Amino acid sequence: DINVINFVDDEGVPPNFFWTIKSLHRKGVPKVDVSFLAGCDCQGSCTEDCNCIKENYADSIFPFDKERRLKNNKRLVIYECNSCCKCSPDCINRIVQKGCSLKLCILRFPKKGWGLVTREFIAKGSFVTNYIGEVITKHEAEERLGRYNRDQRTYLFDLDYFKPSGSCPFTCDAVFYGNESHFINHSCEPNLRVVPVIIDNPNPDLHLNAFFATRDIEPGEELLFDYLGLRGTDEVRKTDVGKRTGINDCKCYCGART
């Protein structure tokens, strides 16, 4: 349930932006091969004896609690039940794959343009939405980036959780195709975090990027994430990687640290 509101000017939502609920794999991006998927044999909702849990988590603990929120806000990757699993559609380990169910608003702001605002309370740890767009090769992403830089716009999100920065083979581009995540703005003090998710594609280079609430978010608040992605989290800022890459020294332009 998403509204569009603009009390600022006559600007409409980008006319060349096309809504899609699933990412589109473009030339050079391999199709999903479900023959490599292994599913569980659970009946109804999965329990912690589920093979999906035992095989993917060292602690053998579900990522979600009974309220379907992240148990551990620092969990770095989620493996959900897939299309080969026999558990029910209401399984507690099928959250991200259902997409956004929140009441949101695409709102026009006076200085920064469009943003995404929640119309309802979002509890800490709740799933918000997925980053959806065109999945393209690194080569295609580099070509598009040149054009986007000239137009002063870019929505390229590298699928780099399992690869060192700069070496990932695929990128998700939400410039022309996407969902409500297209309108989420940056903040150095975000209320959303990015979590990589594996569901129906066993190729880790093609993981999803899902947004979860890092704290309770009140109705009317803008939804924001750090454009540094995983590298921008507090956990990474404190590591040697964060110190080497100068993440802590990045100048803030969003106003969060002023």
TrEMBL record:
<dbReference type="InterPro" id="IPR007728">
    <property type="entry name" value="Pre-SET_dom"/>
</dbReference>
<keyword id="KW-0808">Transferase</keyword>
<keyword id="KW-0949">S-adenosyl-L-methionine</keyword>
<keyword id="KW-0489">Methyltransferase</keyword>
<protein>
    <submittedName>
        <fullName>SET domain-containing protein</fullName>
    </submittedName>
</protein>
<dbReference type="GO" id="GO:0005694">
    <property type="term" value="C:chromosome"/>
</dbReference>
<dbReference type="GO" id="GO:0005634">
    <property type="term" value="C:nucleus"/>
</dbReference>
<dbReference type="GO" id="GO:0008270">
    <property type="term" value="F:zinc ion binding"/>
</dbReference>
<feature type="domain" description="SET">
    <location>
        <begin position="102"/>
        <end position="228"/>
    </location>
</feature>
<dbReference type="InterPro" id="IPR050973">
    <property type="entry name" value="H3K9_Histone-Lys_N-MTase"/>
</dbReference>
<dbReference type="InterPro" id="IPR001214">
    <property type="entry name" value="SET_dom"/>
</dbReference>
<feature type="domain" description="Pre-SET">
    <location>
        <begin position="38"/>
        <end position="99"/>
    </location>
</feature>
<dbReference type="InterPro" id="IPR046341">
    <property type="entry name" value="SET_dom_sf"/>
</dbReference>
<keyword id="KW-0862">Zinc</keyword>
<keyword id="KW-0158">Chromosome</keyword>
<dbReference type="Pfam" id="PF00856">
    <property type="entry name" value="SET"/>
</dbReference>
<keyword id="KW-0479">Metal-binding</keyword>
<dbReference type="Pfam" id="PF05033">
    <property type="entry name" value="Pre-SET"/>
</dbReference>
<dbReference type="GO" id="GO:0046974">
    <property type="term" value="F:histone H3K9 methyltransferase activity"/>
</dbReference>
<dbReference type="GO" id="GO:0032259">
    <property type="term" value="P:methylation"/>
</dbReference>
